[in-house]
């Protein structure tokens, strides 16, 4: 499909939010975006409404649009529900995936692998995000997919430290994340729900400590939420 100024604006804003090129809570200037993309105000507002519906931005009455913020409440809710949603999506993906989706997942994984070998942090953020988006598409569940989409926005933003390893231990974790993706693909191919859910928790634990590095200055500890009510609920249902 040919790119249009409107689709370019949509994709560029999504990318800039996920890669933190646009900071959380940053104001979006409707006039400058209209000029930059050669659009009138109406299609720019259409894109804002679409992105707001997907959880990327917040439109405030008489105050314009801003990138969705990340505050204490946001992060608390993220750590509370992330493992639960990922595990539910994983089970549904095993039950409902189509061969074309598995092929798409494999291609995304190869791009993620290449980005990790090249230490291309921005590409890793985007390909990792796409990898998990495909899981949502595989689930085929209209209730879970929006929740996963919103979750992935903050996962990408909080997880930036993971894709910028500063020591050998962080580089080892990154290599293990690539292996986990391979494991997800193998478990899906084998239609093994339990293996997918086990990997969900391994994958979550792997990135959790790196996420803590990101949020520690704000005084929030992920440990306060992992192992709490959400994890206990999952353990009871599995």
UniProtKB/TrEMBL annotation:
Cross-referenced PANTHER family: HTH-TYPE TRANSCRIPTIONAL REPRESSOR NANR (PTHR43537:SF53), TRANSCRIPTIONAL REGULATOR, GNTR FAMILY (PTHR43537)
Pfam families with a match to the protein in the record: FCD, GntR
Protein name: GntR family transcriptional regulator
Keywords for this protein: DNA-binding, Transcription, Transcription regulation
Xref: InterPro entries: GntR_C, TF_FadR/GntR_C, Tscrpt_reg_HTH_GntR, WH-like_DNA-bd_sf, WH_DNA-bd_sf
Keyword hit for Transcription: yes
Lineage, opening ranks: Bacteria, Pseudomonadati, Pseudomonadota, Alphaproteobacteria, Hyphomicrobiales
Domain HTH gntR-type: 3-70
Domain of life: Bacteria
Molecular-function GO terms, alphabetical: DNA binding; DNA-binding transcription factor activity
């Amino acid at each position: 499909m040919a790119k249009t100024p409107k689709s370019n604006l949509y994709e560029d804003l999504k990318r800039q939010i996920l890669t933190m090129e646009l900071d959380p809570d940053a104001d979006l200037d409707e006039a400058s975006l209209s000029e930059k993309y050669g659009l009138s105000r109406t299609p720019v507002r259409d894109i804002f409404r679409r992105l707001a519906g997907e959880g990327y931005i917040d439109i405030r009455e008489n105050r314009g649009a801003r990138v969705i913020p990340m505050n204490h409440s946001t992060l608390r809710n993220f750590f509370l529900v992330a493992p639960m949603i990922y595990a539910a999506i994983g089970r549904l993906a095993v039950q409902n995936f189509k061969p074309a989706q598995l092929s798409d997942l494999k291609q995304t994984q190869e791009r993620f692998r290449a980005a990790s070998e090249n230490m291309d942090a921005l590409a890793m953020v985007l390909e990792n995000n796409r990898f998990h988006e495909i899981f949502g598409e595989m689930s085929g569940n209209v209730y879970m997919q929006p929740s996963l989409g919103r979750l992935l926005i903050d996962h990408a933003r909080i997880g930036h430290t993971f894709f910028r390893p500063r020591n050998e231990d962080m580089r080892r974790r990154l290599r293990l994340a690539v292996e986990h993706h391979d494991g997800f693909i193998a478990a899906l191919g084998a239609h093994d729900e339990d293996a997918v859910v086990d990997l969900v928790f391994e994958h979550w634990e792997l990135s959790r400590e790196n996420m803590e590095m990101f949020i520690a200055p704000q005084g929030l500890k992920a440990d306060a939420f992992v192992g709490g009510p959400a994890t206990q609920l999952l353990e009871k249902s599995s």
